Structure formats: C-alpha cells, structure tokens
TrEMBL record:
Residues 176-298 form the DNA/pantothenate metabolism flavoprotein C-terminal domain. It comes from Rhodamnia argentea. Signal peptide: none annotated. This is Phosphopantothenate--cysteine ligase 2-like isoform X2. GO terms for molecular function: phosphopantothenate--cysteine ligase activity. The gene is LOC115751409.
C-alpha cells in the first residue's frame, strides 16, 4: 500500500476527530436498547436461510431525509425534499428478489407497499357499511388488496425490520448500530444508502436550548459540516459489505463527475447518480469500470426505475459475494 502523504494523513486525522466529536456530542438515542434488541432478534432469525442454512443476503435500505434541529427543545429544524419513494420502492424489489431488509427510514415518509395507495385524501378510499364492515371503494380496491396482502406476507415471514429516525443525530447513530451488527454477515450484507443526509448541522452543545426568540434582528447561526461517514462505514463499521451510495445533483453537468469522486473518495462499490427533476425516470449506475444508464420502462403501466435498478444491483452483489468467498 502506498504511504500516505502529509495532507492525506492530516485529512484522515481531522475526519476521525470530527467523527468522534460528532458521536460524543450527539444526544444519545432514547431507544437504543430497544433498537439493539430488535436488531439482534431480527438477525438471529434471518442471518441464515430457513431452507438450506446458508447465509441470507441482508440489505440495509436508508430512506427519506434527515432533519437538523435548530433548538434542543426543537421547534424549528432544517429539512430536505426527500419523500422516501426511492427507499420504499427499492425495499419492495429487494424483498421480491429474496433479500431480508432493514428499512432505516425517516418518520412520516413513504412506506413499502403503500406507494400505490392514494395519499390524499386517504380516507376517501373507504366506505363505512356497519360496525363490522368497511368497504374499499372502487377504483382503489385492487391497490388496497395488493398492498395489504404483500405487506402481510413479509411481516408474517419476519423479513422486514423498520427502524424510524428523524434527526441527523438519530440517523447516524442508528446507521452505525445497523452496520456493526451486520458485520458478521461479511459480503452477504449490503448497504443501499438512498437517504438524503444533511451536510451541515448545529452541534448539540452550541445549540440553543429553548425556542429561538425573534425580535432581535437577523438570525446569525453557524452550521458545521457533518463528518463524512461513508468512508468509516466502508473501512470500519462493515468492511466486507457491498456498499451503494447515491449522489443527487440539480446540475447534470457535474453529476457524473461528483459520482466518480464519491466512488473513489469513499471506496463505494457503486454510486447511483441521479438528477432531482428526473430521478424517478433515470439513474446512472457508476462503478470503477462503467457507467450504466437505467431507465423506467415507460411502455409498462406502473413500472418504476427501481425495478431494473435493483435487478442490476442484485447481479453485482452476487458477483461480490462469489469474489469475496473465493
Ligand atoms: O426519497 P426520494 O424518492 O424523494 O428521492 C430519492 C433521493 C433523490 C433522495 C435519492 O435517490 C438520493 O439521491 N439520495 C442521496 C441524496 C444525496 O446526494 O445526498
């Protein structure tokens, strides 16, 4: 391995100090014991396939966006656009492909099997008949039936664990917990990091405790950069797992360059590049060897870009498992 030059070593040193400081100063998760228990129970049940006792493929799908609180007793926060559609749809396709899924999602965002249900106004789907009968109105009855039965199927088999987060502090602590608990699965674990993670945050210690008061002129607040956890995930938390991150840009002229940079800087196996306005139509799967454009099949009703995307990633993961085990 090549020796690190001074600036590389300094960058690495700074970032590990920043990471330590982020975790040391983050408010501890209120339900960390409950999450640990849930993860343990889920992995005890699902690490090996019930059929032949071989290792299962388990994917952690992150979904939705993290918030950045501005006050400790939070009234206001910075948020982002992510709806959680990508994560929810991808979860369905991973389950269909035989994966076990840990769905790390932002509270209140899109959920697996609920995408085809009308969000607004949801209650108009139903008709109250009498105390023991509620009817689903046409034209929603087929979608509701499918959503309920598909969801029930994975819940009964215990193949989907849902873990909700809201803030950047919760998200990164939970990602670390999931990653370290999947370490034993080696290459059979996959990370599919579709959540939009805040780049800047207010450190807990310098955050106002109470609601920030108006009336004293413009708000002057300084945000610090969230340490880049992808490199730590790859190197320390889950070094053998297959790691896929996403790169979103609004300027298509810089998208692929930024994806290439993320690939080499964080040593991801794949970076999925997408542009805000076309993200549900097309993504580009970027690896060290190639850039493959993956599009939604517009000729089929109800098709989404996640269908071919997950098929491609599942193939690549299979190669990673074979290469790692030989
Ligand atoms: O959640 P959604 O379906 O509305 O959007 C998905 C997405 C654009 C957040 C995801 O594809 C993505 O690019 N996530 C990473 C964003 C980033 O670069 O931080």
């Amino acid at each position: 391995m090549a020796a690190k030059n001074g600036s590389e070593a300094a960058e690495e040193h700074t970032s590990s100090a920043e990471i330590r400081s982020f975790f040391d100063s983050a408010p501890p998760l209120k339900n960390s014991l409950e999450i640990t228990d849930k993860l343990k129970e889920f992995l005890d049940k699902n690490s090996l396939s019930a059929g032949d006792g071989r290792a299962n493929r388990i994917v952690c799908v992150t979904s939705g966006g993290t918030t950045v609180p501005l006050e400790q007793r939070c009234v206001r926060y910075i948020d982002n656009f992510a709806s959680g559609h990508r994560g929810a749809a991808s979860t369905e396709y991973f389950l269909k492909a035989g994966y076990v899924v840990i769905f790390l999602y932002r509270r209140g965002t899109c959920q697996p099997y609920c995408r085809s249900l009308p969000a607004d106004p949801f209650l108009e789907c139903f008709e109250f008949i009498d105390e023991s009968h509620i009817k689903v109105r046409e034209p929603h009855s087929e979608a509701v039936k499918m959503a309920i039965s598909d969801h029930q199927n994975v819940v009964e088999k215990g193949q989907l664990l849902k873990l909700p987060f809201t803030t950047i502090f919760e998200y990164l602590q939970m990602l670390q917990m999931v990653a370290t608990s999947l370490r034993g699965l080696g290459p059979h674990a996959m990370f599919y990091l579709a959540a939009a993670v805040s780049d800047f945050y207010v450190p807990w210690k310098s955050m106002a405790e109470h609601k920030i008061q108006s009336g004293s002129g413009p708000l002057d607040m300084s945000l610090v950069q969230v340490p880049k956890m992808l490199a730590v995930l790859r190197k320390e938390w889950a070094p053998f797992a297959y790691c896929i991150s996403f790169k979103l840009e609004t300027d298509k002229n810089i998208l692929l360059k930024k994806a290439d940079m993320a690939l080499s800087k964080y040593k991801m196996h794949v970076v999925v590049a997408n542009e805000l306005s076309t993200r549900n139509e097309e993504v580009v799967v970027v690896t060290g060897d190639e850039k493959v454009s993956v599009c939604r099949d517009k000729t089929q009703v109800g098709c989404d870009v996640e269908d071919p995307l997950i098929k491609l990633l599942v193939e690549k993961h299979a190669i990673h498992i074979v290469d790692s085990c030989s």
